[in-house]
Write a structure and sequence with these properties.
The protein has 183 residues and is an alpha+beta fold. Helices cover 39% and strands 16% of the residues.
């Protein structure tokens, strides 16, 4: 019982520490000599088709949903095709798909790759992952480390647990990894 409360306390301290730095982040410079210009970045359809082409060689492509957003590309994958239940080690199918993706990303490097881990609302309680938040973070980190080992730079990972569901009727899709590629 002491170990669990220690983990929760350490998690709370870490969150407070992170919030401190967000609050203390520098303010934008306001000067009449500068003009703020918001220029939306658009992904060219060729970029999207290149990633789709890179993924067509993998049998597991049917489990990948590709979503084109205003300034990024989101790849959504169900975790049941990537991990065993309550585990964060990538299986062979996931590694093959991520190798194909990273091969494309190395030839046309994005400015940033962000990995989001999500779980469904079925509670997990293992010694390694005491709740869904830990599991989702570990899975996102596993994907990020794999991409980093494949030569992809500027990768971040974040776990959301079950706090950002796609919807109740899509319970199976709630447990997912999302890779957001910003060119």
């Amino acid at each position: 019982m002491i170990e669990r409360s220690l983990l929760y306390n350490l998690g709370a301290v870490f969150m407070c520490f992170c919030c401190f730095f967000v609050i203390q982040s520098p303010k934008p410079v306001e000067n009449e000599n500068f003009e703020v210009v918001n220029v939306p970045v658009r992904i060219h359809s060729a970029y999207l088709s290149n990633i789709q082409h890179a993924l067509t060689d993998i049998d597991s492509v049917s489990g990948v949903e590709i979503i084109l957003e205003d300034n990024s590309l989101r790849l959504r994958m169900c975790t049941d095709k990537m991990f065993r239940v309550s585990r964060a080690e990538l299986n062979g199918e996931a590694q093959s798909m991520l190798k194909a993706l990273s091969a494309h990303l190395r030839t046309d490097p994005p400015s940033h790759v962000h990995i989001e881990g999500h779980t469904n609302d079925e509670p997990t309680n293992t010694p390694q992952y005491p709740n869904n938040w830990y599991l989702s973070a570990a899975r996102a980190i596993a994907v990020g480390m794999f991409l980093g080992d494949e030569g992809i730079e500027r990768v971040t990972a974040q776990g959301f647990g079950d706090s950002v569901p796609l919807g109740r009727q899509e319970e199976q899709k709630n447990a997912r990894i999302e890779i957001i590629v910003t060119p």
